[in-house]
Description:
D-amino Acid Aminotransferase, Chain A, domain 1; 364 residues; five-stranded parallel sheet
Amino acid sequence: MKVGILGGGQLARMIALAGYPLGIRFIFLDPSVGACATTLGGHLHGDYHDENLLAELAERADAVTYEFENVPANVAGFLTSRTQVYPSPKALAVAQDRLVEKEFLNNLGIPTAPYATVDSLNDLQAAMEKVGYPAILKTRTQGYDGKGQSVLKSAADLKLAWEKLEGLAAIVEGFVNFNREISIVAVRSVSGELAFYPLSENVHKGGILRVSESRKNDSQQAKAEEYATRLMIELDYVGVLALELFEVNGELVANEFAPRVHNSGHWTIEGAETSQFENHLRAILDLPLGSTVAVGHVAMVNFIGGKPESEDVLKIPNAHLHLYAKAPRKGRKVAHATIRTMTLAELEPLKKRLIALADEIDDS
Length: 364
């Protein structure tokens, strides 16, 4: 079997690494000559809109998936008319627009932060009466890892924040005074089989995920699974999906969902019976899903902008290093490492050592 992947970054790379032991082979479409996944399969080098390359990808692959959610709608539609594409274009369309996403979540009975659509400075000024301060002004599309966002603390911030968007469609969201950030990584197969990983508890800085830790038997597991199930059933979803949530005084408020494998699920490579990457492949190829049971206690730490010396990571007991073969660059995820232990007490001091290494080289 051969899987086509739109994108050749680290997520595509980890999907391919999970698929090789299953006898799955890969072909990537990516405009970058040095895309880090492309050493693991064929590389169609060119623009995502190139219909000749898209047709070749569809012809050579048994199924096509993607590693990022900003796949242009016409690209997804072109591929869908020629081969199996998972997740579906409908899931892409909802996830690509923050306003559509918020409305979709609310219509499913999943609460979100207060929000308002903004098309002008006057709109923004009026919206703040509804949303209140502090708030975040975001582009409706193309934002990730904190990009395309401005924090609004008072009316004095509005004009500059709006000008930074340069006329792009936007949404303003009220701040959520959360107790913690969590996410659930879920998977659904072509046949409708569902599976859920233990919740991840996450720490962000500057809009970028820094630390993610598995939480066995979390009190919010059942509610998070319920919300993820509603999403996947309504979208007729196939593949891995991550739903990011805030816990607020015992209640869950949705932030956003990602229709793909997700950074907060990287710990599953060492920390679950079956990783999110392998289960994504099983799902889109309609193979039986693997167990999502956690193995021990696991924490994942991202390395942003640069990476420490491998020796410094590997001398930490129970550490596992993943280098992405990507050149260091400000704000770029270039590697991650996980720590897995049998008890939570063992995990904490080792996690702190790993975080300290990440902080030393942080260039975000």
